[in-house]
Amino acid sequence: MKVEIYNNANYQLSMIEGNIEENQAKLEEATVRLGEMQSRLETRVVKIYRNGQVNMLDVLMDTSDLSEFMTKFDMLTKVGEQDRDDLDQVKLLKQQVEETKVQLDSDMETQSTLVEQVTSEKADIESGLGQRQQMLGSIEGEIASLQAQEAAAQQAALDAQAAAVSSDSGGGSGGGGGGFVGPANPSTSGGAVGIAMQYLGVPYVWGGADPSGFDCSGLVMYVYAQMGIGLPHGATAQYSAGTPIDYSQLEPGDLVFFGGGGYMSHVGIYIGGGSMIHAPFEGTVVQVGSVSSGGSFAGACRL
Length: 303
Prior knowledge:
Low-confidence stretches: 51-55, 166-190
Distance between the termini: 23 Å
Strand order of the largest sheet: 3-8-4-5-6-7
Radius of gyration: 34 Å
Shape: elongated
Helix content: 55-70%
Oligomer: single chain
Order of helices and strands: HHHHHEEHHEEEEEE
Structural class: alpha+beta
Number of helices: 7
């Protein structure tokens, strides 16, 4: 489902943004240290080369062979151990600065791609949601019309029945319309299943992650948060957060996933007996359903 593509892209984007922030801090620190070390070495060279050959440091720093560099410098200046350590640090810091810049460029390019993907997926989801809401509004109107017609027909039947009854009042009227009997709640000792059952009937809301509305991974994230277990908002990321198990090993509270090709498009909480509790899609509510009806089963995990 597109909403899970969106959730997964958002999760990846948050990870990349964290990497960028960390590498920017490393780059700033390495740059400051590099400047300090180079300044220290320049001061040392000025003292050694009083004849004005201060630019020799730059020439030596461009030497590709560190062994050759150290040999030349020792021969010319008889540099002490501290100077050699400083030179090693300058080389190391220059390399660190360059590598960090390359990683930052790569992360920023990835960030740009993910931002475009998130924006595109969000637009597609909102467009589809608008169409579904419009369709739902039309269906609700038809249902209201049918209900009105049915009520009118029932009232007409009652009026006809009342008119047909004469002085004989012994005729009993039929009653007892049957109500819908839902599936029995599974016997649980609390835990994830018991918590999730409290939210049966909560409407599906794209991106929802609280009792005012849930999407599939939002429901799982919220339920497990009540148990002190933090999960990301995305089915694929949630699968990676647990220990993979076979279908035959499923126990109540395990997570079941649907999708393919390494990408999870839907997730539910297993309750036993081949059933799960989940938030299926727009226009539905949190409900109990069979695992076999969830789509293409892609795996399960235990947290």
